[in-house]
Amino acid sequence: MSGAAEPLVSNAKLLAFGEAVLTKVGFSPDDAALASRILLDADLRGVASHGMAHLVDFYVRRTQAGKVNPHPNMQLTSDQQAAATLDADNALGFVAGHHAMGIAIEKARATGVSWVSVGNSTHYGAGAYYAMMALEHDMIGFSMTTGGRLVAPPGGLGRAIGLNVLSVAAPTSREWPYVLDMATSVVAAGKLEIARRKGESIPEGWAQTATGEPLTDPTQLHPDGTMLPLGGTPVHGAFKGFGLTIMVDILTGALSGFGTSAEIDAGLTAAHCFGALRIDAFQPLGDYRERMERMIAAIKETPRKESVDEIMIPGELEHALAAERRADGRVPVHAVVLAGFHDAAEELGVTYDLED
Amino acid sequence: MSGAAEPLVSNAKLLAFGEAVLTKVGFSPDDAALASRILLDADLRGVASHGMAHLVDFYVRRTQAGKVNPHPNMQLTSDQQAAATLDADNALGFVAGHHAMGIAIEKARATGVSWVSVGNSTHYGAGAYYAMMALEHDMIGFSMTTGGRLVAPPGGLGRAIGLNVLSVAAPTSREWPYVLDMATSVVAAGKLEIARRKGESIPEGWAQTATGEPLTDPTQLHPDGTMLPLGGTPVHGAFKGFGLTIMVDILTGALSGFGTSAEIDAGLTAAHCFGALRIDAFQPLGDYRERMERMIAAIKETPRKESVDEIMIPGELEHALAAERRADGRVPVHAVVLAGFHDAAEELGVTYDLED
Predict the structure, then answer these.
(1) Is this model's pTM higher than 0.95 or not?
(2) Looking at this predicted complex, what is its ipTM?
(3) Does the beta-carbon distance from B112 to A247 stay under 8 Å?
(4) Cβ contacts (< 8 Å) between A313 and chain B: which residues?
């Protein structure tokens, strides 16, 4: 193993390793390949917190523990022209999400707009992947999911609601799409994980202690600290972040009927929803792109702070990074993660061939 | 006039006054009544910044200036099963919004889900009204609009994007609905108006000067200060607020084809969108309500700060206030606003009968 903390690992080898490991714990080759592709996609886009790093500790371990069903019998409990609900039968979230977004896209092709709510699912990785499935169909895509119950409502001190996520993707006039992929908290939990790993403190305003004091030592989050909704404090908009968190819960766990982040098994089971809007059901695609270009150009021409080279639209940086990493054929993977892969390979009887 | 800064004025008289004034400047009695009802609804819910206070300075003056068309020829430029686009022909935003949300509800009744994008419109008041139209149909409602161009993107110093607004309403298990009605900036511009009127300073983090310094004197916003996107600073999530602002622009001005907040006449013309999800297209309504109750109960049972009596769900306080003000038959209206009404009544030849 290289001495660097984050050696570069071949994308192809990571995909093959993910497939081998997931097949070994019971998934079909197709599902194992799909999950690996979605995980690698997050690494390519620089979202390492939702990428291959969790292959073993989330997906393999939860499947071994019987929390994820490798052979789900997914069923539509409602199927209307533009709406559907999927009972995912505890499928791997990647499998449920990919299937449900596919249904949303087909429905939007017919009616112009669609929404699919999903319950009885599990962690689906980075939400952007599903929203972005709409792009090649010239649609705007939505994807939302419940997250682990770690967030206190404004004025609260307990873990009442999830680190819920809202993702939106839309074609633009440029080579990159607009992609918003945000936890409805000030920051995602991954930011605390990273600070912990580095031994760094975190800024005030991300989290609070059990008594409501600012929490700046990320090792203090567990067992009873809480993350704060976007906005942080009421005076800076915490009721907005709280309202968005609930919006996601309503559209996922309440609308599907399988339970919101306030009641489901925190971080293990999940509810999602997916939406698609076919742009040419509203207006010709060329006109849409023209309006997008005018917006993007106006934003980029805005006067900037001296320290800022260019104002970036959400999704722009991630697209550039993914293109670079695809061309290079490699993504960085933390040494600790690789060590875990090494051990898992031995345990599962899978070839470990990730290092040069 | 009472000596109080905010005398209480009869709801019925305010409605009649609004109707008389708007009819006088050219609106049909039906449109004038609709607009007055929507304005009063904001006052009832405690959103005075979007209520009757703007009757004259926004709606009457803009109509007199030819910016609002009292006899619009509103046309659907696209009409698909679950999707439509409305060219509002510079209608009063209330008229365009009410019409478009009605279409969204009818479409969702048939297909389960719908989305209607609107351009060539004007200021539509508080977005919650339209989202809440879905409630009596047991639907979840969405309403979004472009706002005045006053927001700088993260790293930017110029007014690139609008004070865009996202509103969502959903039935709950309680007597009040969930209602989120938020500018995608840290605060709405109304908060600065109020501070200016009171001669108070504003907290750091709401706005910045033309050079990017914290702006705490609200009189300094014009001509070249900027409001900040929700999150405020990049470290506290400003890219999320920025991303939400763009999401609203995409779904309103780009999707309708009539232009986003980055290019349309700041604050005068507007683009909106409206969505409806019929809950029983996803699952039986009773099951939905049960999941909502579990979520609400869990949130309300969360340990609280000592200073907090109860954790309120978005929409709960506004519902209670509206019930109180309906029962009382009166809402507070600032004395300055009443003085303006008095002058406008004289100018337009309308009876002024708002004070006891």
Answers:
(1) yes
(2) 0.97
(3) no
(4) 246
